[in-house]
Amino acid sequence: xxxxxxxxxxxxxEGTPPxxxxxxxxxxxxxxxxxxxxWAAGTPGPGTATPLAAHALERAAAVLxxxxxxxxxxxxxxxxxxxxxxxxxxxxPGWRLRAWDRDDSAxxxxxxxxxxxxxxxxxxxxxxxxxxxxxxxxxxxxxxxxLQLSAGxxxxxxxxxLLGQRVAELQEERCEVPLGPGRTAPGAPAxxxxxxxxxxxxxxxxxxxxxxxxxxxxxxxxxxAAVGALxxxxxxxxxxxxxxxxxxxxxxxICVAAQSPAGNIEQSAADMLLGCAxxxxxxxxxxxxxxxxxxxxxxxVAELLAVARGEDALLRGLAFEALRVVGAPAEPEVRAVxxxxxxxxxxxxxxxxxxxxxxxxxxxxLSREESTWLWVDxxxxxxxxxxxxxxxxxxxxxxxxxxxxxxxxxxxxxHPRTVQVLVALAAAHPxxxxxxxxxxxxxxxxxxxx
Length: 450
Fold this sequence. Notes:
The radius of gyration is 26 Å and the shape is elongated. It is 63% helix and 4% strand. The chain has helices spanning 19-29, 31-41, 54-64, 68-80, 95-98, 104-116, 118-121, 130-150, 156-173, 195-226, 241-258, 269-276, 281-293, 297-308, 313-326, 331-336, 344-354, 368-385, 388-393, 403-413, 418-428, 432-447, and strands at residues 84-87, 90-93, 154-155, 230-233, 236-239.
């Protein structure tokens, strides 16, 4: 139970089509991606990377009567929208593809995943440094908010002015001073340029900055148009119904979190997760989405994984629950932590579910040792934050089947919280004989005995 205030279900802006119509539009945007996903899921060895291997690309183009460029683009979209997953050399349908024809919510979530990945769908122009591209991506939500609030076409000059202001704010927040060509940072060795050269650089730097912003704005608008979020006219841009709805949803998520008593949107990842610990899964996911919407994906994923590496097992589990809400953009970072023993079981389960496995079957990807390690970690979370009865019931979830077998493998797994977990379990269990055996195991682990 929480003292969280209830809030009436928000209504989308007037004129927003019904969800069924939005889903129809999303299906139209992703039609080629769905065809390619079905083809890839039913074809052995379609390739392990994007773009597809040459032989598979030609085969798909022939079968689907699409150009190679269309196949490559559709394959990218299918992966970004969670329609298909790769397992070695084999493509398997993602859960969204299986639900595509019957579940409008799955369709809209798939399209939103594509919308969030617009900068991957439409790569930035060559020759622009990564920092400038990152600033533009971070500034785009402001541009989208203006388009959404305007409820109609907005001129490109107005959007360019807003983009420039937001980029300048981001640079100021980072205490960055833009340097013109030929200029040096404070403390750097002076070059051979003259005072006249420096004056010329200062005079032309703003123009160059405006030109760069204009190029980046064109790229962003084209990328958003490519995923169906907006339409481009002569000198103006307009959100599509899908784009308008998606921006409204994200703004609404931020408002919901901002109005919560805990103010989770402004909290650190650890405090946000603790604030969500006693929520049921649905409201907790809403909080995760709102917290994520107020941050760049990269920084949010990094902060969640940093919390997962901490000593609190409850936060470790909750961090991966929040990463499930992130979805596809978190996959590389989650895959990268497989080498970390404390995170590996969580990462394996995350990847199994992300790749389309039923959550009830995902445990099959864990080895016996990994399952035992996860059992101890979960018991530590229960011991620290849960109720006594829950810790006793946690015994039933062990893969070993018998308490003696469990204790043997728990002693061997090397979890740093093993002793505390066994002591807490012994104190909580109502069976004196079993409690005695658990206490003996705790003592043996503590003293290093067999």
